[in-house]
Each structure stands twice: as C-alpha cells, then as structure tokens.
Amino acid sequence: MFILSKISDLVRIEPQKFRQATEEAIEDEINAKYANRVVYDAGLCVCLYDILEVGDGLIRHGDGSAYIKTVFRMIVFRPFVGEVLVGWISSCTEDGIRVRMDFFDDIFIPKENLFEDCVFIAREQAWVWRTEHELYLDTNERIRFRVEQETFTDQSPAGPSESVGAEDEAAVSARPPPYTLIASCQTYGMGLLSWWD
Q1: Rounded to an integer, what distance in angstroms lies between the CA atom of residue 16 and that of residue 102?
Q2: Radius of gyration, CA atoms only, the chain
Q3: Are 105 and 88 in contact (CB under 8 A)?
Q4: SS3 label, residue 186
Q5: What is the pLDDT of residues 119-160, one digit of tens each?
Q6: How far apart are alpha carbons 105 and 182 in whole angstroms?
C-alpha cells in the first residue's frame, strides 16, 4: 500500500529560512511542496522519508532565495493491483460504489465489478447482494475490496482562454482526479466487513 519513491528536485529556500539548519529548511520545503499531492506515475505523496543528497546552494540574481539540488525519498500511497484494502462506502449510484479511506477518496467500484446478483435500489441509494438473504451495501459501511486498476490523469494547466469566470471554475471542478483506483468486490471475503464477522 505504501512505497518509497526516490525524487530529485531543485528546492527553493527563502532568505527568512536561512537561520534554520539547512536539512531542516529543506525538509520543511519538501513536505510543503509534496505532502498530500499526487506525483504522476508515482502516487499520492504522504511525507518525506529521508534526504539522500544535498547539493550546493545557488542564489539567483534579484531573488535572494537559495536553490539546492536535492535527492530524497517520499512515502507514497500506491497500492498494487490485486491488493486487498478496507475503506468506507461514501456513496452509491446506479453506476457503482464510491469508496473512501482515511486519506484517499478516489476509489470506485463499477457495477460490473460487484457480486453477480447485486442490484441497485434507487429509493434507498444502496446496492443489495441477493443471495438466500438480502445483504445491503450501504453508505458509511466498512467494505473490503481488491484493487483492479490504477489511473493517473495529467493535471497540466490549460492555456489562457478568452472567457474568464464561472465557466472556468466549472471546468476545473469537472476535471477528473489526478489519481484514481478502480476496485472490485466479487470474491469470497470481499464486501462489508460485518458480513464476514
């Protein structure tokens, strides 16, 4: 679920942080820049693990900040395909189930990846697995699922546009998340934790 990812970056230290120890200032800047951010093809960065290399600081003309080439390792959330995780159902729609974890919300279980005899009940906004009993998959219940696919979406900024205003805000909010997990809930032991207790 968590991996170490090696990253090389040019870290900017502002003049007001020159009084701090160099490693401490670099650590603060790395955590501020990367923590809780998705790095394309790496995963969701959680926090700095360690600093491997620190180069010499260079000061740019007119800026006053020091720029230091740094190599470091981050703790990154990136579950492997086939890994079994536990989360909470955040919503149910006729397309499938949205699942959240304590620190990650972009998990989706499509209806094709649910148990074979699952049906969606619109008035209750819940999925029901019909076996000899009706087993509900309802909001805020703990669910065990398996990761089937991960998707990274490039979040590069769009170029300038003619219209500025509410349309741009709507377009930004409609953008897909930078990192999404597609999961399944089809085998023995998957589904709500309360079913298997």
Answers
A1: 35
A2: 22
A3: no
A4: coil
A5: 998 888 899 988 888 888 889 999 999 999 999 988 777 667
A6: 12
